Amino acid sequence: MSELAQAVASLRPHAVRAAGFSFFSSMLVLAPSGYMLEVYDRVVNSRSHTTLLMLTLAVLVAYMVMEMLEWARSEMLHAAGAELDDAMRPRIFQAIFEANLRKVPGGSTQPLNDFRTIRDFIGSPPVTALMEIPASFIFLVLVFAVSPILGWASIVGAILQVLIGWLNERNTQPPLVAANRAAIGAQQYADGLLRNAQVIESMGMLKSVHGRWMEKQRLFLNLQALASERGGLFQSLTKFLQTTMGSLMLGLGAWLLLRNELNGGGGMLIVGSILGGRVVAPLVQIVTQWRMVVNVRDAWQRLDTLLKNIPPQPANMALPAPKGLLQVEGLMAGAPGMAGGAAIIRNVAFGLNPGEVLAVVGPSAAGKTTLARLLVGLWPSVGGKVRLDGADVYTWDKSELGPHIGYLPQGVELLEGTIAENIARFGTVEPAKVKAAAQAVGLHEFIMSLPQDYDSPVGRDGAMFSGGQRQRVALARALYGDPVLVVLDEPNSSLDEAGERALVHAIAQRKALGTTFVIMTHRTSVLGVSDKMLVLRDGVQQMFGPRDDVLAALQKGQNP
After folding, report:
1. How many CB atoms lie within 10 A of CB 508?
2. Residue 35 and residue 37: Cα distance in Å, rounded?
3. Of 82, 112, 520, 554, whose CB neighbour count within 10 A is largest?
4. Residues 6+ apart with CB under 8 A from 391
5. Is 34 helix (H, G, I), strand (E, B) or coil?
6. Collapsing DSSP states into helix, strand and coil, what is residue 337?
7. pTM of the full predicted structure?
């Protein structure tokens, strides 16, 4: 049983109770028919007001009980959905996050939409219709008691409904699945356009990219229209059959009555007709809601595939806090999710003691950013290991390791919230530590000039600040809490001269406290505080050693 199936199977107690309430509620659906027969039989013949009053009170009580049972069933199914949400949402979020890091399918918000589709389906009409099927068998037994011919007629009607449902599935499922995929593609494309709105607007690309989005949208709408057209035809057939069955059962009952073959007398004409309709009612409900069934099945397949591809992380033994001893052993790696792709990093090996600063230099596409991601455990290696105090950083529980690591990626991203929350990594904001990190990068004075100082919002993606200010906030976040290992990928790419001085000062200050730094850079400003240098070219380690020795070798043009 898959992980998702196990989670749904654990809801069995809720389903059993809801099915029990559904059964009794379905049986009470016969109350109006019983009331009608009793009125015609007892009240009309006896002309008794008391009998009419008591029958009316009885049927009103039956109505109230039926509504209470349906309300209880709804609440139980809602509770089941909430329990499934509590059990699976953190796991799904983790899987999405991991898929995004590994660059494999599923690293978007679509799995959350799929999960919502599955969760909402728990209390949907097709599910409640399934719960009413046991009562339908009781109704079928009662129809056979009235007349075996009426019973077999009801079975024929049920078979025809199943046949219509099968034809509906066969004809609507392919375009519905294709439409869902086209809708997801169009949505993801639109999200990409919004993220790059400034570039699109400034260079007059809107008309062209809008045309591409419209092509994707038209494909989705055409497929949806095709599915709706086919589904509408089968829904019409279903409703026609349901309506016709009621009249046919009534006519067949009258024919049997004329032949004296109807058990129970003339009143059973109406009873047989009503019961025959109730036999096929759940099937009608399922067929008319078949689009919902197809959608949830497609969502289930996508989500189940994601959870199988991204298994849950095993619980690892807690490790002691690292000191900052970094060891890279024969490292070889490529981009995740690119099976058979060329390795970006090949045979990189070096070591750093706590408090040492390594400058990694090399031309563009040398593999510096890939190395940075490997050092903090974002990407897996094909060969070799990155070890911090002897432990593999990739398999180390990130919630445990994270507070001891600082990371500034090349593409700076701030999360929507306040400056203090971003610097404090959205954990508990400790004002003294936040202020210390901001002061270390020369950002404190700027923050205090804002109307809300550290409580000032950064806006979506840090839109309230310039590129250099965003980079300084991200640098303060990397230094927050005095981590033992800090990896900076082009930390001065958006900094002015004052910002570079603040960066160098922050590195020197933390270095004195024992923090190990690895800095990917094209600039020479950080070389003054570096102890060692690593030269990369085409993913291959060209030189590594003390800074002055490597610089001297580079100046002499030596070929390592």
Report:
1. 14
2. 6
3. 520
4. 319, 322
5. helix
6. coil
7. 0.69
Mean per-residue pLDDT over the chain, rounded: 83
Residues ≥6 apart with Cβ < 8 Å to 142: 271, 275
More confident site: 472 or 462: 472
DSSP 198-246: HHHHHTT-HHHHHHHHHHHHHHHHHHHHHHHHHHHHHHHHHHHHHHHHH
pLDDT for 316 beyond 70: no
Whether 458 and 464 have beta carbons less than 8 Å apart is answered as yes
Beta bridge partners of 486: 406, 517
Chain-centre distance of CA 5, in angstroms?
A: 16
Virtual CA dihedral for 105, 111, 112, 117, nearest 10 degrees? 160
Alpha-carbon gap, residue 206 to 2, rounded angstroms = 44
What percentage of residues in the chain have a pLDDT greater than 90? Answer: 9
Residue 359 pairs in a beta bridge with 519, 533
256: which 2 tokens? 């049997």
Pairing of strands 357-361, 516-520: parallel
d(CA 498, CA 504): 10
The DSSP bridge pattern shows strands 383-388 and 391-392 to be antiparallel
Highest mean pLDDT among 197-206, 328-337, 511-520: 511-520
Helix (H) or strand (E) holding 540: strand 540-546
How many helices and strands, by DSSP H and E, does the chain display?
20, 10
Q: Which of 155, 159, 139, 156 lies closest to 272, judged by CA? A: 139
What's phi and psi for 485, nearest 5 deg?
Answer: -135, 125
Nearest by Cα to 83 from 75, 71, 94: 75
Which tokens in the block code for residue 372?
């940075």
37-41, 248-252, 504-508: segment of lowest average pLDDT? 37-41
Q: Is the pLDDT of residue 270 over 80?
A: no
Please name the residues in contact with 408: beta carbons below 8 A apart, sequence gap of 6 or more: 471, 474, 475, 477, 478, 486, 487, 488, 489, 491
The answer to whether residues 437 and 419 touch, using CB atoms and an 8 Å cutoff, is: no
CB atoms within 10 A of CB 259: 9
DSSP, collapsed to helix, strand or coil, labels residue 537 as strand
- Local confidence band at 518 (pLDDT 50, 70, 90 cut-offs): very high
Indicate the burial class of 394 (C-beta count within 10 angstroms; 0-12, 13-18, 19 or more).
Answer: middle
Residue matched to tokens 């497609």: 298
- Identify the burial level of 195 via C-beta atoms within 10 angstroms of its C-beta, where 0-12 means exposed, 13-18 middle and 19 or more buried: exposed
CB-neighbour burial class of residue 506 (10 A; exposed 0-12, middle 13-18, buried 19+)? buried
| The residue type at 156 | V
pLDDT at residue 485 in the model: 92
pLDDT tens-digit series, residues 276-315 = 777 777 877 777 777 788 888 888 988 998 888 888 877 6
